[in-house]
Design goal:
alpha/beta
Length: 342
């Protein structure tokens, strides 16, 4: 009997380690659902990083088109106006070859009518076998365009099935993970207008802060590398940067206790051992929630709608924790769906 092959597209962890959280989790779910199948992961198309005229570089070798596989799995928030430009050639080829296309942990970017119109038109031509969304608005926008559709959760919620934390010899610490925006200035009590309770203490913060340090950094580095907190009560501060590439020593290590790695598990272990996590990164918050941490998201990104899907909309307003029984039930139902369709 011929072995069934599944090729999963992943990569670009060095530009955003959060990509590796759902890439590893999807590989785990596919392998567990079908132990007798061959499941391999390969690099995403170059247009996601080295775009040329809105698509892949003209001199790039299309490795994906040459892979003979029964299923091709593409992942993440790829539903935007560039989706057809980057994927038209490759997905048209795999369709002609009879390969079934699965789009897992699917999300959008702008969630507007122009994006929806563009993506819908393209999906009609490539006819996906399955779409499993990570947020309900994406599911509602495209559920009728695949043979199988599921209003799913982000596959990163499976990451604790893969990674088991190990202890660190370190005093109690919290994570401040702000590499996409200036780090807010936090203080104990209600000094500032934005107030919340974190780890049993009242805190407040302000954003738009200026001091001698940030003015100097502003001259030499992007705004994302500003920081304002030397202390955080009794807790040490650790500052993960979610990317390695592109980056320079001065940019990545501008703030005390900055941490950079090319390995997803290093970040997961930092989140798992922290007392709590405050971050502008969606997947840093998600992974921290999975390991039982108190977490708050400081971002208005529409990609944060994946938290609405798991009944944690308030994560943008105050620190929250994850209902473990609820998420286990959601994971179980989604796993059974994947197992049934492949």
């Amino acid at each position: 009997m011929r072995k069934v092959n599944i090729v999963q597209v992943g990569g670009f962890a060095s530009t955003n380690v959060g990509n590796d959280f759902f890439t590893k989790s999807i590989h785990h779910v596919l392998t567990r659902a079908n132990p007798e199948y061959s499941v391999v992961t390969t690099q995403n198309l170059p247009g996601y990083y080295w775009k040329e005229n809105g698509t892949n570089p003209k001199n790039s070798f299309n490795y994906l088109e040459r892979i003979e596989t029964d299923y091709l799995v593409i992942t993440g928030p790829l539903f935007d106006v560039n989706f057809p430009k980057i994927w038209k050639e490759t997905l048209s080829t795999i369709k002609r070859n009879g390969t079934r296309l699965l789009i897992l942990s699917a999300g959008s970017q702008k969630y507007d009518s122009n994006e929806r119109k563009t993506v819908r038109a393209f999906l009609k031509t490539i006819e996906p076998y399955a779409i499993v969304s990570r947020d309900t608005p994406t599911y509602e926008a495209y559920k009728d365009l695949a043979e199988y559709s599921y209003d799913g959760i982000d596959f990163s919620f499976f990451i604790d099935d893969i990674f088991k934390p190990y202890k660190l010899a370190i005093e109690d610490y919290i994570i401040l993970n702000f590499d996409t925006m200036p780090e807010p200035k936090f203080t104990i009590g209600s000094k500032y207008e934005n107030r919340f309770t974190f780890l049993g203490e009242e805190r407040s913060y302000k954003t738009k802060t200026k001091n001698k340090l940030t003015k100097e950094l502003s001259k030499n580095f992007p705004k994302t590398f500003r920081y304002h907190n030397k202390v955080f009560g009794r807790y040490t501060i650790i500052r993960p940067q979610n990317y390695v590439n592109p980056g320079t020593r001065k940019a990545l290590f501008a703030a005390p206790n900055s941490f950079v790695s090319e390995l997803a598990f290093d970040y997961l272990n930092l989140f798992a051992n922290a007392q709590g996590v405050l971050s502008s990164r969606v997947h840093s918050c998600l992974a921290s929630l999975v390991f039982g941490k108190e977490v708050m998201l400081f971002s208005k990104t529409l990609r944060g709608q994946l938290f609405d899907r798991i009944q944690l909309s308030e994560i943008r307003e105050r620190p929250v924790t994850l209902n473990m029984e609820y998420i286990a039930d959601e994971k179980g139902k989604m796993f059974e769906f994947i197992k049934a369709i492949i």
